[in-house]
């Protein structure tokens, strides 16, 4: 056993799913701060996992590590740097020579690997500057391909890392052809649609685990982080509202005559956010790994509103733009492949507007009758007679929560 730290519907094939390259106006490299915040939050788990592994296998001459779904941009080398840092520290404490490190950066073939390769020399310079003579020899290799297939030789990997990726399915599920008026699971979707998405995730994640179990050495470990939901019921409107906003924006373009309604009806996103129970059951049923720890935390879709930004001041217009750019950097290639590139700018201008409107609506609802105060007669003062207003605020709380909706991130780790 291994330890686990955890064609009718659309043309959205695996190769159509790639983050926006660096030459795009809204590139993933420049708009992946949400993903960076997630990496920062799982950094302690990464350090603990690598430390635990090293304590079991040192001394050793080399270690092979795979980072699956590496994308391209400032986040690409973040896990590698943290792994090097942990290896250096543990080897110093253990008074043993540091092993050589080979890192395999994997993503789909259309990923911007050229940018990654051009960045390797500067990454090595950063390591030399930071570690000096203690620098761990680090050899980096690009591995294009789907992690829902075999990627590496049998029993060749010591450690596998994947963050912000496994919520993407290998394909649009079969059985969602009648998901009219939606591009993902929604309140109005039929039970068959929810079952189809759940079944596809079960098949994909099971396949991922089986292939990794063949590639990882006995005693090897994995750290996985994926978007999830903290609500068991997938029909709940809070499960993933960013796609509801995108659906709404697309139908605004339909109303303008810029998009055909049939094109929207035939588009479904190959994406699924599982709950903890689903993840745990799949791991236990597949049986290749021991699940040693699972944690859930939240991250805001507005990348500036996070625990690390102590100077953050909320500004609703900026927040709407931030969320729109983050979503666009991830999904633009798939949308352009299906609808054409000409609609993209208009689509995300509308998306930002809808995000802003959500926030404004919540603020307006929360300030009903807030201007009429009574400060003359203390017996009938506003402070002593404002229960009605309190009830209004309680009823508007769901709208306020919707306006600042968080991403639910599931971390499967050791």
TrEMBL record:
The keyword Plastid does not apply. It comes from Hibiscus sabdariffa (roselle). InterPro entries: MeTrfase_7, MeTrfase_capping, SAM-dependent_MTases_sf. Keywords: Magnesium, Metal-binding, Methyltransferase, Transferase. This is Uncharacterized protein. PANTHER family: S-ADENOSYL-L-METHIONINE:CARBOXYL METHYLTRANSFERASE FAMILY PROTEIN (PTHR31009).
């Amino acid at each position: 056993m291994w330890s686990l730290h955890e064609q009718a519907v659309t043309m959205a094939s695996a190769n159509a799913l790639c983050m926006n390259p660096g030459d795009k106006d809204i590139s993933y490299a420049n708009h992946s701060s949400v993903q960076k915040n997630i990496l920062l939050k799982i950094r302690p788990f990464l350090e603990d996992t690598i430390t635990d592994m090293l304590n079991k296998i040192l001394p050793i001459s080399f270690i092979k590590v795979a980072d699956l779904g590496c994308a391209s941009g400032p986040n690409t080398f973040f896990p590698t740097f943290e792994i090097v840092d942990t290896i250096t520290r543990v080897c110093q404490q253990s008074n043993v020579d540091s092993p050589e490190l080979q890192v395999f950066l994997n993503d789909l073939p259309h990923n911007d690997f050229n940018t990654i390769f051009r960045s390797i020399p500067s990454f090595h310079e950063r390591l030399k500057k930071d570690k000096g003579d203690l620098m761990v020899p680090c050899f980096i290799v690009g591995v294009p391909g789907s992690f829902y297939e075999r990627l590496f030789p049998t029993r060749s990997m010591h450690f596998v890392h994947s963050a912000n990726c496994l919520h993407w399915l290998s394909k649009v599920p079969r059985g969602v052809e009648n998901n009219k008026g939606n591009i993902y699971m929604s309140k109005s979707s039929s039970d068959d649609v929810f079952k189809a998405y759940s079944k596809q995730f079960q098949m994909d994640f099971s396949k991922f685990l089986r292939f990794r179990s063949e590639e990882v050495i006995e005693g090897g470990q994995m750290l996985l982080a994926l978007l999830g939901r903290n609500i068991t019921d997938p029909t709940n409107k809070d499960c993933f509202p960013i796609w509801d906003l995108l659906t709404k924006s697309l139908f605004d373009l339909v109303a303008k005559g810029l998009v055909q309604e049939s094109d929207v009806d035939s588009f479904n996103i190959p994406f699924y956010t599982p709950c903890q129970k689903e993840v745990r059951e799949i791991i236990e049923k597949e049986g290749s790994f021991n699940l040693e720890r699972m944690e859930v935390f939240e991250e805001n879709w507005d990348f500036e509103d996070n625990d690390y930004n102590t100077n953050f001041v909320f500004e609703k217009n900026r927040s709407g733009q931030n969320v729109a750019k983050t979503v666009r950097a991830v999904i633009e290639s798939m949308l352009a492949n299906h609808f054409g590139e000409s609609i993209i700018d208009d689509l995300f201008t509308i998306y930002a507007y809808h995000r802003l409107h959500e926030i404004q609506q919540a603020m307006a609802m929360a300030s009903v009758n807030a201007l009429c105060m009574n400060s003359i007669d203390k017996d009938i003062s506003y402070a002593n007679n404002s229960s009605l207003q309190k009830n209004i605020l309680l009823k508007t709380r769901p709208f306020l929560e919707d306006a600042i909706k968080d991403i639910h991130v599931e971390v499967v780790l050791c």
